[in-house]
């Protein structure tokens, strides 16, 4: 069967969500991909594609009700991470090897293996610019050996993908898409979050042991950088890049020095920044604008975390100054 071209992939921000009613329509649904699907199980085909493109990163949620054989490739210069979005009803097969719900397929865009997928599949593909993620890995002193793999792909087991899936569910929730598409601050934080999740998947090594003095040096360097950039608190990935360490090692150092992880530390910095803005607000200010400014996508979660820390809702802080 001939592989037809899908919509061209570009770095422009794009969100699409649509139902498909035959395998050709479904195969041609992802921007920049050239794939061929052959239906294996009997029955009328029905699928759904949700696609979010941000600069250098593409998210695709792919749902289909029939067992399929999939072949093809992603866009040029890409690296693709593919995993179940919801637990698989059955195993799937990758180049003849059995894979399960806790597996993730990592592949160069032009080296996607043949897949035999089960009925009622629900998977997520995070496809990124290969050079971008290799550059981040290099800054964090993480080695990536895919180029040494003659197949150009491999499958690995995830110890836990709960945090990644929780973030994905927030990111591609339709109730948040408009905010994401319109706000550069949110876009950058989402990209940083996803890139760091992927770097964590690549970084399979355990954190090297560091003594108390060395751990404190790492924490002090991170804290000094954060406190010197209070107007634009860095993301975890930026912090790791600046310090030249992996998130695993950074977390190990924070946990053993301050008793909290770096994600919590950065969230506290952003919550306090939002608190200051609300305290110094004027009559034209609103909670959502302040939350968005400081990179909080999920407004109700922001309000909950804010109340836990300051014992009042953001709206209550705002009213004090109006």
TrEMBL record:
Residues 220-320 form the HTH araC/xylS-type domain. This is AraC family transcriptional regulator, ethanolamine operon transcriptional activator. One of its GO terms (molecular function) is DNA-binding transcription factor activity. It comes from Amphritea atlantica. Keywords: DNA-binding, Transcription, Transcription regulation. PROSITE patterns: HTH_ARAC_FAMILY_1, HTH_ARAC_FAMILY_2. Transmembrane segments: none annotated. SMART domains: HTH_ARAC. The lineage of its organism: Bacteria, Pseudomonadati, Pseudomonadota, Gammaproteobacteria, Oceanospirillales. InterPro entries: Homeodomain-like_sf, HTH_AraC, HTH_AraC-typ_CS, PchR_regulatory_protein.
């Amino acid at each position: 069967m001939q592989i037809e071209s899908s919509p061209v992939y570009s770095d422009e921000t794009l969100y699409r969500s649509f139902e498909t009613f035959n395998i050709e329509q479904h195969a041609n649904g992802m921007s920049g991909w050239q794939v061929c699907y052959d239906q294996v199980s009997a029955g009328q085909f029905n699928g759904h594609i949700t696609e979010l493109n941000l600069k250098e990163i593409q998210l695709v949620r792919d749902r289909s009700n029939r067992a399929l054989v999939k072949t093809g490739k992603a866009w040029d210069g890409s690296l693709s991470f593919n995993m179940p979005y919801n637990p698989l009803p059955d195993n799937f097969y990758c180049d003849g090897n059995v894979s399960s719900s806790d597996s993730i397929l990592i592949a160069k865009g032009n080296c996607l293996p043949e897949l035999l997928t089960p009925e009622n599949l629900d998977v997520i593909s995070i496809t990124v610019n290969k050079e971008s993620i290799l550059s981040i890995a290099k800054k964090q002193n993480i080695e990536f050996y895919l180029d040494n793999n003659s197949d150009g792909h491999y499958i690995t087991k995830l110890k836990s993908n709960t945090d990644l899936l929780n973030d994905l569910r927030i990111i591609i929730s339709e109730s948040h898409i408009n905010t994401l598409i319109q706000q550069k601050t949110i876009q950058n934080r989402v990209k940083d979050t996803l890139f760091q999740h992927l770097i964590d998947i690549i970084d399979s090594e355990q954190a090297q042991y560091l003594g108390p003095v060395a751990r404190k040096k790492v924490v002090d360097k991170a804290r000094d950088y954060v406190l010197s950039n209070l107007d634009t608190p860095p993301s975890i990935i930026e912090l790791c890049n600046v310090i030249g360490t992996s998130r695993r090692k950074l977390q190990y150092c924070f946990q053993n020095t301050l008793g909290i992880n770096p994600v919590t530390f950065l969230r506290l910095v952003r919550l306090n920044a939002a608190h200051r803005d609300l305290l110094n607000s004027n009559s034209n200010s609103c909670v959502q604008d302040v939350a968005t400014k400081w990179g909080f996508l999920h407004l109700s979660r922001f309000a909950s975390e804010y109340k836990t820390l300051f014992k009042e809702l953001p709206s209550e802080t705002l009213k004090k100054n109006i």
